[in-house]
Amino acid sequence: MLVILFCIVLLILLVSWAKVNPFLAFLLVSIAAGLMLGIPINKVTASVQKGIGDILGGLLIIICLGAMLGKLVAASGAAQKIAEVLVNAVGQKYIQWALVAAGFIIGIPLFYGIGFVLMVPLIFSVVYKYKLPAVFIGLPMIASLSVTHGFLPPHPSPSALVVLFHANMATTFVYGLMIAIPAIILAGPVFAQFLKKIPSEPLATFRAEEMPADKLPSGFISFFTALLPVLLLMLTAFFPYLGVKDPGVLKAMAFLGDPSIVMLIALIVATYTLGIKQGRSMSTIAVNFTDAVKDISLILLIIAGSGAFKEVLTTSGVSNEIADSLKSFNMPPLVLGWVIAAIIRISLGSATVAGLTAAGIVASLVVSEHVNPNLMVLSIGAGSLAFSHVNDSGFWLFKEYFNLSIKDTFRSWSVMESLVSIIGLGGVLILNLFV
């Protein structure tokens, strides 16, 4: 624990005080952590490389294609059109709530990273057009994405926990909704009221000059193109319930439902609907794509660095040591599950790793203590979201996309995640009194 604490403090000081590039800081701290935690010296670099490969393997294509799609949505005027339609529908006064609702609906079928990349252009289009505080407008929508990621199936961690605890997927989803809605409201729009003065100049790649109304794409084309990845993923999610048994069709749908393929299809469609159809040349579109990748290159490196740090801590076995030392604590099983998941999350940064590790430790308690398995899924899910900070890729995604200082990222993102976690535990304990 002392080694982990030292490394986290060192990372914060290197980035904020010494102004070291975050990727280099992660590399230095990851190597130092590996050596101090007893990983053989000839295997430290292998752990670093594996961590980088593992996290980029799942995110590189999605983030790059998402950035290209976002750039095209912004440059074509589609983001401007979407913002106008939303504000005209609900009024500028309630635009924040409209974005929260959109984030929640979209967050149910989408993995967090994909949802974040897809929704950021929509957030920034509202921010730029109506000159609103970026964090105040954006954080509530991001909160809704985070809550669905931690609480609700079909996301990886809650889905795996449902199977592990032999819980009921539908019941867990209903209980999760009952907890998720107040968590989003309190940690989103209510908490964001205190963040209006945080300075933020969001990532320039999603900013476009305001275009005259007659040059904008139609509302249908704008919404359809921007939300096409969501529609495709929802279609593939519901496909298994149609009763199709043909192996070839099932394999094809599995291929088409892969997030990378979905993003590629969406980008191809957007290239036509928001590019060629709007009279833009392929050379102009290609420049937009190149600029988009340049703008998010540092983000990719920072996420890679966080993956290296997480892998070093995982390889060292420190997560298992932390968990074993907590087994002897005398506390209610639902609270114990939350505490174990929270400590592993704070130590390693990964919500999924925290959830699955905690589940393996308390699984026997669910049976022996007659704990409601659906509530244990939600308790651990809430704990796995606690206090995201510098070892979590989500922290850096939010910081870099919104162009915040580390201090302001702690004040906004980290506090929001902690509120979601604590409110989630409170909701679980209240439900436990009645079910």
Q: Quick summary of this structure?
A:
The protein is an all-alpha fold and 435 residues long. It has 19 helices and no strands. The model has no long low-confidence stretch (mean pLDDT 86).
Could you describe the 3D structure shown?
The structure is a single chain. The protein has one domain (2-432). It contains 19 helices and no strands. The chain has helices at 2-16, 22-36, 44-75, 78-90, 95-107, 112-130, 134-151, 156-164, 169-192, 219-238, 247-256, 259-275, 282-315, 318-326, 333-348, 351-368, 373-383, 393-402, 406-432. Helix 16 (351-368) runs antiparallel to helix 17. The radius of gyration is 22 Å and the shape is globular.
Keyword list:
globular, 19 helices, 435 residues, 0% strand, mainly alpha, 76% helix
Q: What fraction, in percent, of the residue positions are helical?
A: over 70%
Order of helices and strands, N to C?
Answer: HHHHHHHHHHHHHHHHHHH
Low-confidence stretches: none
Please count the beta strands (DSSP E, at least 2 residues each): 0
**Mean pLDDT rating:** 86
Strand content: under 5%
The domain tally reads 1
Gyration radius, in Å: 22 Å
Largest sheet: none
Separation of termini? 37 Å
Helix count from the secondary structure assignment? 19
